[in-house]
Structure formats: C-alpha cells, structure tokens
Design a protein that fits this description.
Sulfotransferase_dom, five-stranded parallel sheet, 49% helix, two-stranded antiparallel ribbon, transferase, Rossmann fold, 10% strand, alpha/beta, P-loop_NTPase
C-alpha cells in the first residue's frame, strides 16, 4: 500500500505534534520514521515506488489512511509533480502553516543549535539569497525567509491536486485548540473522531548545547573518533541511541530570545504581498500574522 495522505509542511509548524497524534488513531498508519524524504531525496526517489512501499509501508494492516509527513515537500518546486506522478491526484494533503516570520526565526535557531549556523539572524537573512545558490545543504538549512512565501508554494500543488482534497491548518489555531483542530482533521480524513487521544505531548522541546565546542564535536567528530565508535558499536541503531544519550546530557533547555522589532517589520514588509494572496487562496483570515 502507498500513501493517500501527504503533509508537505511547513517546517517548524507542529508537524511533529501532528505526526504523534495521528499515529494514535487506529485507522491511520504512519511509518516509524516521521519524514521519509522519498520525493525530495533523488537517491531514494530513483529507487522507485516498490522500494518506497517496502521500506516505509510494508507493515500497513488495513488502515484507511496511510501518510507521509515530510515538511520540505512544500518548499521544493519539483515535489508536486513527483507526488502526482507517483500517487495520482486523488490523495489528501494537510498543510500546517505558521506565521512565516516566527517560522523563519524558529528555523534559524534550529540550524544554530545543530551547529550549521554561525551568523546572527539578521546577518543570515541578509546572506540568504546568495547562500541558497550554493547547493542543497544551504537550501535545506539556510532558507529561513524563502520558505515563508507560502502562496507560490501552495499554487504549485493546486496545479496538480483538487482544492477539496487539501486542508489548511493554521499553527496558531492548532496550538490553542489541539483537540478541536484534530477533530476537524479526522473529519477531513473521514475517520472516527470520537476516540481517546493523548494530547499531553511535547514535541521537539527547545534545547541549546551547553558547550559550542562539544556541540561541534558531536556534530562532526574527527575521523578517528568515528571509526573507533563504529568499531566499538557496529550496530547502527545502538550507535544512534548512544549519540542521542550523549546529546541529551549535553544540551540544556533554551528559550529563544525575542525577535528584534525592526527585524520583524522588515520581514513583514517582505511577506505582506504574499500573505494577502495566501488569504485568498486558503480562504482564511490571517490578520493575526500582520500584527
């Protein structure tokens, strides 16, 4: 069986929370790996549809909804056609949309905490256009502002898929009323909504490395350390658990600094036209994002 539901984004908009909640529904199947990256990773995509099904969906047992939640699908321009060519037009989509300014800032801190970003947020957005010309790494990790032009991204999907098969969820509404919005999602998916769901979850809590040096060492250890680690622990899953344990004790809870007001106004001016167009496309009031 192949997916009949795609959540293509956007990143930093509670897609992990959505994944955790949807997995609790008996009529919904999501793979153990939240993000398959099948359609955006050429190495996976060209292995073909049978590989996709075998690796991620071989354990489907009659669930009505089979999903793939990979937030970068929304951003990359070739994704709608690849999804259409592989799965056809009669699949459903859930788009999780967040104030693009807040999304960009959250994305920046994620890249910083992972050791990818060295610049301030203000410097990073000034450098962004040139950076993302350099290749896939920059496109994925430094596209803070560019990912926020939602209307042009959604229009690419509407060229291939009917509007009635697409649900748009506003992040700010979702976090205020998770249970209510999830009932709307279950209704859209045509599965039972009167089931017991544990909503007491916390996905991707904000953390910061206790030491920048240690963070960089964990992210890119010397070759000798890598080889020794692999020799001592040849099982890949065990290595991942060990790395996760090291990261857990190496990071502290972190609260992002407030975004500078002048930076917020700068980004609002950049996004204003796109947001007004987005309101018309998704038929939702986004005035909260303009404040």
């Amino acid at each position: 069986m192949l997916p009949n539901l795609i959540c293509p984004g956007t990143q930093k908009s509670a897609t992990t929370t959505l994944y955790v909640l949807l997995r609790q529904h008996p009529d919904v199947y999501l793979p153990d790996v939240k993000e398959t990256h099948f359609f955006d990773d050429d190495g996976k995509y060209f292995k073909g549809i049978l590989w996709y099904e075998k690796v991620f969906f071989s354990e489907v047992k009659g669930e009505k909804i089979i999903g793939d939640i990979t937030p970068i699908y929304m951003y990359l321009d070739r994704m709608p056609q690849r999804i259409y060519d592989t799965l056809g037009e009669n699949i459903k989509f859930i788009f999780m949309l967040r104030n693009p300014i807040d999304r960009a800032y959250s994305h920046y801190w994620m890249s910083y905490k992972r050791g990818y970003e060295k610049e301030t947020f203000e410097k990073a957005i000034d450098l962004e256009k040139e950076r993302i010309k350099t290749g896939q790494f920059a496109i994925r990790h430094f596209s803070y502002v560019d990912r926020g032009f939602y209307s042009k991204q959604i229009k690419r999907f509407l060229k291939y898929f009917p509007r009635e098969n697409i649900q748009f969820i506003i992040f700010e509404d979702f976090i205020k009323n998770i249970s209510g919005i999830m009932k709307q999602i279950f209704s859209f998916l045509e599965v039972y909504s009167n089931i017991s769901i544990n909503y007491n979850i916390k996905s991707n809590p904000a953390k910061m490395p206790k030491s920048i040096i240690l963070r960089d060492f964990i992210k890119e250890p010397p070759t000798l350390v890598k080889k020794t680690f692999r020799f001592l622990m040849p099982n890949r899953k065990m290595r991942q658990k060990a790395i996760q344990a090291i990261e857990n004790i190496s990071y502290r809870t972190f609260e992002e600094p407030e975004l500078k007001l002048e930076t917020k106004y700068k980004l609002l001016a950049i996004y204003e036209k796109d947001l007004k167009e987005l309101e018309n496309i998704i038929e939702k009031d986004l005035s909260l994002w303009f404040k």
